[in-house]
Amino acid sequence: MTEGPTLGELGEFAVIDAITAGRRHGDAVRVGPGDDAAVLDAPDGRVVASTDMLVQGRHFRLDWSSPEQVGRKAIAQNAADIEAMGAVPTGFLVAFGAPVDTPASAVTALSDGLSAEAARAGASIIGGDLVASPQWTVSVTALGDLAGRPAVLRSGASAGDVVAVAGELGRSGAGYALLDAGAAEPALAALVDRHLVPQPPYGQGARAARAGATAMTDVSDGLIIDLRQLAAASGVGIDLHTARLAADRDALTAAAVALGADPWAWIFGGGEDHALVACFPAAAVLPQGWRLIGAVTAEHDGVTVDGGGWTGRPGWDSFG
Amino acid sequence: MTEGPTLGELGEFAVIDAITAGRRHGDAVRVGPGDDAAVLDAPDGRVVASTDMLVQGRHFRLDWSSPEQVGRKAIAQNAADIEAMGAVPTGFLVAFGAPVDTPASAVTALSDGLSAEAARAGASIIGGDLVASPQWTVSVTALGDLAGRPAVLRSGASAGDVVAVAGELGRSGAGYALLDAGAAEPALAALVDRHLVPQPPYGQGARAARAGATAMTDVSDGLIIDLRQLAAASGVGIDLHTARLAADRDALTAAAVALGADPWAWIFGGGEDHALVACFPAAAVLPQGWRLIGAVTAEHDGVTVDGGGWTGRPGWDSFG
């Protein structure tokens, strides 16, 4: 297989020209890539913004992920942060570092993944940077719009609220465990795919906000650890009900049997599914796509499971 | 000297708590660090956005720069991109990667530099990410506001316009050469400081826009290479006049003598000064702080110097 010229052979400007040529931008993009900065509509008069960095060997492996999958994952996890505020993504900026001997075709494939996932999230790549780095490093900033609504913070939950989730839980953790074990059963490939490219429930953040969500976050580090932060910010406790999570457990049973693992460890501590988890007033009608998984309590004892402590790993720490 | 606990010993969340505690935000920051995303005022109804990644060993060296200087440089160069659109910076997001054994105190010092330079630029750090990485990597996204004005693009220059600059030229290139040669004369320390922490002329981007600038960019890769891009985007040529740049040459003479170097190479090809260079209609009154350095011509022959070609290095390529 010929991989074509490298970044070093083509140079920064030629590669940027190649990956930006012919890209279509949404109507919200007044000035796209190619000038000193982009200009993006912010119709609300406020802009929502979040940034995440993915480092090769730490957040992805190029022997597991294709360049396109790396790009899709980087956009998906940042888009989920915008959704978790009750906003909709409007644009993404991508700074990318790679070794000088990286084939330019790999950067084009990464760029294809970035653009495809941005389109799925309803937005465009509006700007970026391309530099030399010892390993691949992808740093994405996502921008979004609240359409006049208040932002849904982590701090708004009250005792008596219900806890609900949109999207899937535990799939990414199971997929990682399968990859790590070298288990390649075709029947389990969908879980691996979910680890390589998470599927946030696009549109559900704004839908939850319109339905009256009092607090929201996305499941990035692990359900328990992410809800601990929400509970601490709100000054409440949260109790999760395993009976309400049976569908997630059932979806993971085959992988758990194959690996001799506990599916609940993936559901509660796996992270990287980028599902949305939110609190709603007990009287609220949950929007379509949301399912009840627990309750907000007055006890300041963090997050419990069926009323008891969770003794497994609660999630991921960047330096753990 | 005790360096205290490392990132790995404290963990991601404790370090983030330590560097965000007590930071003050500007009035434009509705939601600062600590939630899934930040919320920033965008009073114009559009937001200007740019991103740059700095990689240790490529864009800075920790044996040359203090962590605080790295932070200040990262903000300054991104702020200059916002200024170059005729906008004012309103907020910065910073994704930072570092080895697990990095002293947390170094990250605090980096954060101090980020915040101090953001304040100089008139804005705040509104969000970020902290991850493990084999080397220091700082990725900044700058956001800005146009206050109702059109963005000043690279493509708006016309034959007959004048070319003017705000800020200094060649200092960063001279400072780099001094560092690279191990030349440590105290009399030349100011040039080294300029390389380690560029000083964009904050506020001059908006001032140029109000004065009618037709095209603008910042000097990041090198005066010639940056103006070539502007000239190509505008479909014009640019001729620079060395007689108008005598003050820059004079400021570099001592360093040039010390190193046996040509000061014009730093002025025309040095880059990283993050001065602003703009075109104005010939009849415009240049704002205070701007000085005439050349003219826009109808010939599509790129950038010339005193009517002839520039045969030196035109600037920097990320993969060169």
Can you walk through the features of this model?
The structure is a homodimer of 320-residue chains. Chain A is of the alpha+beta class and 320 residues long. Chain A folds into 2 domains: 7-145, 60s Ribosomal Protein L30, Chain: A, CATH 3.30.1330; 162-309, Phosphoribosyl-aminoimidazole Synthetase, Chain A, domain 2 (Alpha-Beta Complex). Chain A is 33% helix and 24% strand. Chain A has 10 helices and 13 strands. Chain A has helices at residues 7-10, 12-20, 67-83, 104-120, 171-181, 189-196, 204-210, 223-234, 246-259, 263-269, and strands at residues 29-31, 38-41, 46-55, 88-98, 124-132, 137-145, 162-166, 215-218, 237-240, 276-280, 290-297, 303-305, 308-309. A 7-stranded mixed sheet of chain A has the order 8-10-7-11-9-12-13. A 4-stranded mixed sheet of chain A has the order 3-6-4-5. The mean pLDDT of chain A is 94. At the A-B interface, helix 1, helix 2, strand 2, strand 3 and helix 3 of A face helix 1, helix 2, strand 2, strand 3 and helix 3 of B. Strand 3 (46-55) of chain A pairs antiparallel with strand 2 of chain B, so a sheet runs across the interface.
